[in-house]
Specification:
Layout (H helix, E strand, L loop, with lengths): L5 E2 L21 H7 L4 E2 L2 H4 L4 E7 L1 H8 L12 H12 L10 E4 L4 E3 L1 H10 L3 E9 L2 E3 L3 E3 L12 H7 L6 H16 L6 H10 L2 H5 L10 H13 L3 H11 L8 H11 L6 H19 L12 H9 L1 H10 L11
Parallel strand pairs: 4-6
Antiparallel strand pairs: 1-2, 3-6, 4-5, 7-8
Helix pairs in contact: 3-5, 4-5, 6-7, 7-8, 7-10, 10-13, 11-12, 12-13, 13-14
C-alpha cells in the first residue's frame, strides 16, 4: 500500500448506511460523521515491515544487481545449466508473465529467483516479473522456520500432464516423450517443456498417430520420435517399415524392421538415459537401412542414422533450435 494511503471506512463499502441504521442513504449525518473522522496513515517505517509485490521490467543490469543479493551460505549452488535452460525459453518467447515472481526477504536478500536473474543476464533481454519484498526471514510456529523452507516445495507439473489436461492430447505421456526425443536429436537438449512439445508436434504431426500404438515394449516415446523423423522424409516407410514393425507380420529375415523389433523386445526391462540413447541409435540406423533397401542382421549403436536424417531435415532442425531458444548466447547442451 503506498506511503500515506488513507485507511478508513468507505462511503460505498456497506449495504446499510452505518451501524444501527437501516437506511441505505449514504448522505445521512451519522454516515458523514463517521467518514469525516480523522484517517489513519501508514508510515514508511510501518510499510517497510510489510510484504509488497510490484511488477518490474527487469533488465540485465538489474538482474545482475539482484543476483548479487543472494546469500550463498543459505542458498543452493548456482547452476549455469539451469540458467541457460531458462535463457533459452526467454529467447524462444516461451517465458510468460504469471504469479510466480522473485522474492527478497526482510533483510534484502534474494531468496527466490537467482537462476531467472542469471538467465536474463545470459540472454540480454528485459523480462517482466513480479517482485516481492519484505518476506519475513524467520517464522516461529512451535519450531523455527525460514522463508526458504517453504519455497520450491510444490509438485511440478509434467509435460505429458499438461498436454493431456490443457491440450486434450491422447497418449500424452508417449507424445511428450517422442517430442523430447526429437528435441534431443536436433539440439542435444534433454529437458522438454510444454511450449516446445507443441511446436514439435506442428512439425511432426505423425507423432499423435504413431503414439496410438499400444505395444509398450516397442512403442515407447523414443521409438515414436525416431519413426516420426523417418516418416517426415520418407512417407513410404509407413507401409514398408512402420506397419510391419508394429504388427510383426510379413517381416523377412534380417529385415531392418524385424531386427529393430527383436532388439527392443529382448531389451525390455532396461531403462535410463543411456538405454534411451541406444534405442534412438538403433531406430535411426534401422530406418536408414530401410531407406537403402539394405538387410540388417543386428542393430547398430552409432550416430550415422541420426546424422543422416539431420542432414536431410536441416530446415526442421533449425526451426526446432529456434523454438528451443538455441542461439549463440544460449548454447546447445552436450
Amino acid at each position: 500500500m503506498p506511503v500515506g494511503t488513507r485507511v478508513g471506512p468507505s462511503p460505498l463499502g456497506a449495504a446499510n448506511c452505518c451501524r444501527g441504521c437501516s437506511s441505505t442513504n449514504h448522505t445521512c449525518r451519522q454516515r458523514r460523521d463517521d467518514f469525516n473522522q480523522p484517517k489513519q496513515t501508514i508510515t514508511k517505517k510501518e510499510q517497510n515491515k510489510q510484504m509488497n509485490t510490484v511488477l518490474e521490467q527487469i533488465a540485465p543490469q538489474a538482474a545482475r544487481e539482484y543476483r548479487e543479493k543472494v546469500d550463498p551460505q543459505h542458498q543452493r549452488k548456482y547452476s549455469p545449466a539451469k540458467a541457460q535452460a531458462f535463457a533459452r525459453e526467454m529467447v524462444a518467447k516461451h517465458w510468460y508473465l504469471n504469479h510466480q515472481g522473485i522474492a527478497f526477504d526482510d533483510k534484502g536478500r534474494l531468496i527466490d529467483g537467482q537462476h531467472r536473474m542469471g538467465a536474463i543476464e545470459i540472454c540480454g533481454l528485459t523480462i517482466p516479473m513480479l517482485v516481492t519484498r519484505g518476506i519475513p526471514s524467520e517464522m516461529v510456529n512451535g519450531i523455527k522456520l525460514y522463508a526458504i523452507d517453504t519455497i520450491d516445495v510444490g509438485y511440478k507439473r509434467k509435460t505429458g500432464e499438461q498436454l493431456a489436461l490443457r491440450h486434450e492430447i491422447e497418449n500424452a505421456n508417449r507424445v511428450a516423450a517422442a517430442t523430447r526425443t526429437i528435441l534431443h536429436w536436433a539440439t542435444g537438449i534433454a529437458k522438454n517443456t510444454t511450449p516446445i512439445a507443441l511446436e514439435i508436434l506442428k512439425l511432426y504431426p505423425s507423432i499423435k498417430q504413431l503414439a496410438s500404438h499400444n505395444q509398450c515394449k516397442i512403442s515407447n516415446g523414443v521409438i515414436i520420435g525416431c519413426l516420426a523423423v523417418g516418416l517426415r522424409s520418407f512417407p513410404h516407410l509407413q507401409e514398408d517399415f512402420i506397419d510391419p514393425f508394429f504388427s510383426g507380420a510379413g517381416l523377412g529375415k534380417n529385415s531392418p524392421a524385424l531386427t529393430l523389433r527383436n532388439a527392443l523386445l529382448n531389451s525390455a526391462g532396461h531403462s535410463g538415459g543411456a538405454q534411451q540413447g541406444r534405442m534412438a541409435a538403433w531406430a535411426f540406423n534401422s530406418l536408414l537401412a530401410a531407406t537403402r533397401k539394405e538387410s540388417c542382421r543386428c542393430v547398430k549403436n552409432n550416430d550415422v542414422g541420426a546424422r543422416f536424417f539431420a542432414e536431410l531435415q536441416k530446415n526442421l532442425v533449425r526451426k526446432i533450435k529456434l523454438c528451443a531458444g538455441v542461439t549463440e548466447t544460449t548454447t546447445e547442451e552436450k
